[in-house]
Amino acid sequence: MLRSIATVCLSGTLPDKLESAAAAGFGGVEIFEQDLLSFEGTPAEAGRMAADLGLAVTLFQPFRDFEAMPEPQRSRNLDRAERKFDTMQALGTQMILVCSNTQAATLDDPARAAADLREMAARAARRGLKLGFEALAWGRHTSRWRQAWDIVREADHPALGLILDSFHTLCMGDDLAGLAQAVPPEKLFFVQFADAPRLRMDPLSWSRHHRSFPGQGELEVPGFLREVLAAGYAGPISLEIFNDEFRAAPSRRIARDGLRSLVWLDEQAGLAPLPATPALSGIEFVEFAVDETARAELAAFLAALGFRLAGTHRSKAVQLWRNGGANLVLNAEPDSAAAERFAQLGPTVCALAFRVDDPARLMARAEALRCPTFRERVGEGERRIPAIRAPDGTLVYLVQATGPGDRPIWEDDFLLAPEATAPGALRGIDHVAQALAPGMLDSFVLFYRAVFGLAPDAPWELPDPYGLVRSRAFTGGVADGVEQVRLPLNVSESTRTGTGRFVSALAGAGVHHIAFATADAAAAVQAASQRAAPLLDIPANYYADLAARFGLGEAETAALQAHHLLFDQDAAGHGFRHAYTLPFQDRFFFELAERGVGYEGFGAANAATRMAAQQRGRAR
Amino acid sequence: MLRSIATVCLSGTLPDKLESAAAAGFGGVEIFEQDLLSFEGTPAEAGRMAADLGLAVTLFQPFRDFEAMPEPQRSRNLDRAERKFDTMQALGTQMILVCSNTQAATLDDPARAAADLREMAARAARRGLKLGFEALAWGRHTSRWRQAWDIVREADHPALGLILDSFHTLCMGDDLAGLAQAVPPEKLFFVQFADAPRLRMDPLSWSRHHRSFPGQGELEVPGFLREVLAAGYAGPISLEIFNDEFRAAPSRRIARDGLRSLVWLDEQAGLAPLPATPALSGIEFVEFAVDETARAELAAFLAALGFRLAGTHRSKAVQLWRNGGANLVLNAEPDSAAAERFAQLGPTVCALAFRVDDPARLMARAEALRCPTFRERVGEGERRIPAIRAPDGTLVYLVQATGPGDRPIWEDDFLLAPEATAPGALRGIDHVAQALAPGMLDSFVLFYRAVFGLAPDAPWELPDPYGLVRSRAFTGGVADGVEQVRLPLNVSESTRTGTGRFVSALAGAGVHHIAFATADAAAAVQAASQRAAPLLDIPANYYADLAARFGLGEAETAALQAHHLLFDQDAAGHGFRHAYTLPFQDRFFFELAERGVGYEGFGAANAATRMAAQQRGRAR
């Protein structure tokens, strides 16, 4: 089915929007009228531009405040329609969207609404055009699709049909039950798709600012698509999103996300299967872009956390540092993507590596979802690790999960130090937290959800002393402690929060901290302290409150305090002990995390205290 | 009455918050517990710090999830209370706020709630402490103040009283009717004040993110204060605001706004009168900070708009440029505040001047509202024009309104050119639009509303091609066309919009455009065109739509198009014709506006087209 996107989803001028839609792989566009009004060329030139890009103009929209108006508005509305038909013919589109009237003056008279729409349809038909009627959730008298259908049926004109929009239906708690029985397929003229987070606000504000692409929100959009298909709809699958952040973001990225969301939607609705989501079994390594100097500094920082040089790449200036099951790669290879990143941004994470059951299948899934993929140049005999590019351009490597007897990936590419296999204190990587510019969040949400099948946790709000940080974690994989992949995504509107400052320094997105899993946080902290690791001080007042909140004894509280440990416990009594380092060069930092079996969070209750301590550390 | 503010209103560490509250003139603070938990010193040290700054600790808050819990939580809660009493005694505060329980486990049993609060009160009393019970709007079983009062009355302990919060009451559409009859004054322990915009969202999200200081929102906070005073309340008037932008803004500015809001609130509630708000009769001039080079360039730009050099300051490098009733001052005086601003920001507006009935009275009002005021150095025989500093540091001069026979202010200070009194085409200044960083909006809202008595118009959302611009205009003065003072305030979360880019360049706030009033926009544009003024092109598609929307004839539409004029018309048929210049040095721009009598807007319907044309102009 034809994939289409409304120009209002994208930022920029009409030519920008058309080019971005075409580049992403859409076959059609809805022209949002304001985009045409602001365009310097004629409607015919706009139409040719779309055609030259291979884009059908699937719809012209919206035509507002039409039906059931008293005279003289009724006649003037019909004149207005004729002018818009002129525009449509020049533009080369057949269909216009008429949305239900929101004006105070509109009559509560479905028969009049039907008569008006029939008249407009008759005029459209004379020019070979047609119109679709859509119920806005905040329409004055017509706010449900069933009401709109009653009016369309009553009007009974072949050039008039029904337009559905998943947001308008789902935001009201409504559904499409009975659609296939009530509406003949030829009367289902057009269907628009939008998702949204579940917010408790008025539908107009919700719709105008907080829509999102399917898969980025919480509405049951796949079910909606299944229903329209069951009703025989075969027209375009078209996205219509009003979103403040999309309007401000680069149109190419947003258009790519839009197409990805439709590929995912097709899969979810059972329309077009994709290679299955992966079975994830943890984070194999995190890779840093460094140069020789930064590598030495970071290596010293890591050594204080008990990491040791465990291997050197056979052909590149790349080192493996390891502590137990936690692997960090320090990439100082000149003339590489990592070197380019280092030159731009200084020492930062340039790649994550997930352990997956079948890297080839996941690469095929990612490519079907229009993700750029990456295959590194390799030396002879070295292993080629496939990778997917995340929305910020960093890489996600896909490492074949290995069993107990299997050859680890490291042996092909690295000269391993003899002691590299000696056990360390850390079990692995508990989670990797990314900080994102607010406009990047939805791109990452769709990326992790659609490509990897990760599921979002409940959102959190974390008060930094200089503004709020919103956090949403994505989790997946084997539900057994360290084998999980856990990825908190943090955004902040404020540029003064730790998250906001980091995002500004990284021009949009980056790994802000890495939490290592340990079975004994107190021991891990003690060992780190002995190696003079720079740990974050936690104020005594925090521990006094902790004791009061959880009824902890003096000895237990004192032990936590002595080890700089924060503590959390869920309703079922599962505990979480964690400590933080100071940041490395005012950039990223590390966490030592002891996760009690069953504890699913990240110690969000402690975030305010932690962030205040970090800001204070900075101020010194 | 003691003015108090909760530390949660302000950004930064606890010492920052205390210092800002004291500097603004508060006499007390509520200590929000998380601020203490993040503080490195002991509670006793925090208490001493407050005392040294002259701040009483009016309240310790919040104590959550207390009443009507099953065992063992009930006993643990009482233990927890004892620990908090320890903290309060160290801190040196007598009162703790207990907010109604939101937990699923809490029993729907007011008698149990009363018994629990009585027990906690008895324990508090043993230490000379007391507690106030507050109904949260989203409390599980107690969400209204009358319910909270029933429980407090039932508990009947002298150390237990009621706490009220204007937000929790007013957000539910509730009021304080019956308070004075029901609650004895000695049981009214504490009252918190917060305003908020009227939003249709769940009270929890509304409360946590969108509260504001009294006068910044739309709730009837003055009436709330009147009711609590009528009930005999004589305790602190305390602000408790949760606002994402306050959290991210400098604490000194926000604290100053908070105190200003309380002074205004006292006036509004009839508690303490202030010198009356002014009668405004227009904008006398707008002043630009320039240097010699920028002055020559700006003068050339203005000359193309029909302005002429009308006078030169007697003692400073300051020129008056005039077109009819519109005055612009170009200030290139070295070693002045304007020169400092120019050095930092380039050519920008550094002052506005309002015509007022009584500048001295308004200065007294501004000083009572804690606004910094300014009296310039003047040469001998020159007129001293008093001024108030706006929240962004620019000046608002107060010019004595003159009658037909009065000596104009310009004659004292300027050597006027002989032709200066010759009539020009412009009637005056129609409006001055300021662009603000989002976190600055509430400061300006309170400034214009409290100091000048300006009233906010309905908010608008304006779609720039690269993000949304929110606009809210403040209007006041003689309701006669050009005599009005009209000040649209525009904010944009996106840094890619015209507004966002301008705000970034100006580090927070500035005048983005000035609209001149004309009785004949077509003639004004024609004259400007003949002088080769750089005018903004409007696409032909705009005019085709305009004709369709308003049913304009061909000749009328062609005339608008020929003059680059945008057109708007309100529901009553009052018209607005306006044209824009290109920006001066990618900074501010000008508008020529013909406002039909009765038209109260700013052509918001045309903003999308205008902003797209401006962005396109940039891209060239």
UniProtKB/TrEMBL annotation, chains A, B:
Cofactor: a divalent metal cation
EC number assigned by the record: 4.2.1.118
Positions contributing to Mg(2+) binding: H431, H513, E591
Pfam families: AP_endonuc_2 (PF01261), Glyoxalase (PF00903), Glyoxalase_5 (PF14696)
Lineage top rank: taxon: Bacteria
GO molecular function per UniProt: isomerase activity
Record's keyword annotation contains Ribosomal protein: no
Keywords: Isomerase, Lyase, Metal-binding
Function of the protein: Catalyzes the conversion of 3-dehydroshikimate to protocatechuate (3,4-dihydroxybenzoate), a common intermediate of quinate and shikimate degradation pathways.
Protein name from the UniProt record: 3-dehydroshikimate dehydratase
